[in-house]
Amino acid sequence: MGDYFFSSRPAYPWSTYPLGLPALAAVAVLLVLFTVWTYLGHPQANRRRVFLILALRVLALLVALITAVRPSVGVNENPKQPSTLILGIDVSESLTVKDELGGQSRADAVRKALEKCQPLFDELLTEQGISVALYKFGAADFNEATGRYDPTTAFDAKRSDYGAFLNRTYDRWQAERVRGLVVVGDGANNGEAYAPDAEAGRWGRRGVPVHTAVVGKDTSSDAKDVAVTGVECNPSPAFIKAEFTATAKVNAYNFVGSRVTARLFINDSPVESKEFTLDREKGNELKLTTKAPETKGEYKIKVEVGTPRGDKLEALPGELSALNNHSETYLTVQKEGVRVLIVDQLRWEETFIRDALRNEKRFDVYEVIRQTDATVTDGERKLLSLDAQAYDVVIIGNVNAGHLRRAAPNFLDELTRLSATKGLGVMFLGGEYAFDGIPTDLLPVTGGRVVDALSPTGDPLVSFPAVPNPNGLSKMFKFAPAPGTPASKVVPAKDAWNRMNNFRTGELLNGHNRITPRPGGLDTVFAWTARLDKDAFDRERRILVTPNDPSAIGAGTEFDPAVHEPLLVGSQRGDASKGRWLAFGAFDTYLWRGLGLPKERLGIDLHERFWRQCVLWLAHQDEEESQAYARPQFRQMKVTGEQTVRVGLKKADGTDDPNAPLAVRILPLAPGQLEPKPEDEKRAAPLTVLADRDGRKVLFRPPVPGEYFVSVTSPVTTPDGKVEKNPDGTDKLHRGTAKFIAVPDVSDEMLRVSADPEFMRRLAEPNGGRALRVEELSGFLKELKVEAPPDLGKKPRYYPDWNRNRSRGFLPFWLVVFVTLLGIEWGLRRLWGMV
Q1: pLDDT of the residue at 223
Q2: Which of 249, 539, 691, 812 is most buried, judged by most C-beta within 10 A?
Q3: Model confidence, pTM
Q4: Mind listing the domains of the chain with CATH numbers?
């Protein structure tokens, strides 16, 4: 019988194999014999009465036996499970073109086809359990929740983004049973975010066929136009003086094969020009590569396309409009960390300075080890070529001018020139060879002999403090504890350096080079040490004796040339004072690392923080720590889209502070305006800051086209958590800014209005679907209505069904039959006097 079979499910104990059913049969036979024996000898019995009584008893017994055995006829059925048929209707402007039968518009043809299909939608639900979900789509911001189609929908969308529709509906329906997906439209796709073929392929791989129903003809006349639809920069952000590529996306409607010139502008100044051939109607990518500016900041990038006429670019002959022949975006240019060169002897001081810098990812450290007159390798010679390496900071250790010139004859001359013209930072360290012969243009101060006090065996007899004055505490000697340090163990910078200089428990220097600043206050002293005069030290305690009590030496004490020796001196010089230099008389700061060991790492943190701050100050990046930032996802976007701006506040170690309070404002800029007025920024309401696994962000939809300015502020706090104040009493704020451009969502619909049946076929046929005309849609639904659903696994159905949860009234009926038979039998016996 194929899908039919017999089934029985005897009740216990008759279900016991193999004796259950034979025992039930034996009981049935005995009951019949007992019934016959009972009535054959009754005085009121005759043959007819006994036959009737016996028949009723046997029928009741048969009902009981059937109930015990529970036989059924089983039928294997393919279950009718609910599913959904998705229909997407293109409601873009191109469907208003009147090229359908009788001069009707494509939109009217779609409406009539859907009206004809409406009864079939109801039949699909009734007969196959298929519900129909009707969507409208057009722009890239298609939303499944709000994109339902109804007969009153206007066909006025500015785009035909088939990829966005396929992508968003897949995300919505991927976990549910979908019978098929039908896309209705003219196929004039002009979406940019998603590739329709790839999105349709996702549906096909999931086993959901993609069908298409095309409307319109492919012979309509199209306009001629070249349109720059957007500009992207890679990398973004870009690094100072590094190359970046601006990619302009260009559509060439009826200009395929044309030669054009693309010109790149940075802040409205032309920097690059190149010729291209427009090989495709859509999606031409014109790439222009140039170097980023020499200073960090926000730069407007523009790409213009056209035919050169003198110094200008004009529209191609026959273009519909020249207004869309350019596009703009913004590029952030920033420092590529800090490139540092250390030239020194191989000694503990150099080793620990190098390690302190390399332990933080923002520092890119190179070293050239000069053991007096050692031979120079090709690799070292390359590293000493300053113009080629573009260092930010050069540190000169315990080597003299002769050592440096023998290694690279022009090294000191290049260093002098770059420090004055390019802002290259230079630092000189102490040692027996230090400062010797260095040109005064490069090292304005005088570096002298080593100052120390040694025993006959060469052991130091006295230690020297490194005391930061207020200038030093605010710059090189400012201190932040390592990430994760409990608040209860945070030590203010002043207290930390006082602990370092404590003559009993601190870690002091064994000596230093004497530095003589220039007269007239041209140089800034950032730290000092106690002066060593003849016998002016306490040999027992091994500390210097100053006019003040040595134990009272405290960080933050102003430098007094009468009683102190300069230890760290520096200033700015060169073009716009861009060049910074430091002269540091110490040569064994690695001793600082021992403070607090082994219980705590305060000394290690102070040492590493000091050297990092020195390098950051020299590179003009000392104020970039703990900075607020704003990073827009799109530097150019359609005005109808949603912008995501990543925001945050960097801690001293370069990581984000997840608890920093942030105020984020986004304001439109007037034409030619670089920043909003301060009063306008204060009046603007802060946006809501959201958090996700990637950090913090704000969401923003630009209401009108134009340039927008993003401002992120956060209060500057002291180590104890208090907000710092400006001189006028207002809160001191970290501030980060960014810009982006919102461009009009100019419709491409009426530039290219020909229907594209080939595009619709590519969506359907590779993914198990059929490519139809819109008038064939109703016939397709009729076929679907009678088509067997996919084999989801056969499910048996039993007749009768003895399961009380699925009996549908059979069991109560069966009980009534049994009781009726017994009742009639008992009634007849009573009537005939056989009771």
Answers
A1: 72
A2: 249
A3: 0.50
A4: 4-77+797-831 (no CATH), 83-220+755-786 (3.40.50.410), 225-334 (2.60.40.10), 344-618 (no CATH), 628-743 (2.60.40.10)
